[in-house]
């Protein structure tokens, strides 16, 4: 199975794009949407079809894009999610990460 082009993924993304462009957007003011579909579709390691064996598909238990290449696709998602969380905390001005205190709490109030 060949890797899908971005044009082929566009059909899957359209409902999300339509929803976000609708008049419901104002009701979602506190919601951040992290759409990783397009980014994942562009990554070579986001598609198992690249790793098919010459004799056909690899066994089903080996078809796990979450753990196929490390660091991989989920690691990129986690980096984006972490950046989003940190941006939200910075906007709120409430807490900043502090891992040096060693109290087990990774967030502490700024001095």
TrEMBL record:
Which regions form coiled coils?
none
Any one GO MF term held by the record is: O-acetyltransferase activity
Report the residue ranges that make up the Trichome birefringence-like C-terminal domain in this protein: 20-83
Q: Which one Pfam family would you cite for this protein?
A: PC-Esterase
Q: Which PANTHER family match?
A: PROTEIN TRICHOME BIREFRINGENCE-LIKE 11, PROTEIN TRICHOME BIREFRINGENCE-LIKE 9-RELATED
Sequence similarity: Belongs to the PC-esterase family. TBL subfamily.
What is this protein called in UniProt?
A: Protein trichome birefringence-like 10
Native species of this protein? Zea mays (Maize)
């Amino acid at each position: 199975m060949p890797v899908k082009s971005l044009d082929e993924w566009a059909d899957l993304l359209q409902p999300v794009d339509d929803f976000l462009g609708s008049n419901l957007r104002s009701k979602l003011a506190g919601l951040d949407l992290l759409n990783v579909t397009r980014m994942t579709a562009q990554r070579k390691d986001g598609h198992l079809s690249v790793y098919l064996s010459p004799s056909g598909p690899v066994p089903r238990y080996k078809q796990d894009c979450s753990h196929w290449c490390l660091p991989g696709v989920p690691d990129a998602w986690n980096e984006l999610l972490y950046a989003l969380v940190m941006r939200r905390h910075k906007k709120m001005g409430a807490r900043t990460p502090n891992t040096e205190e060693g109290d087990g709490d990774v967030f502490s109030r700024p001095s």
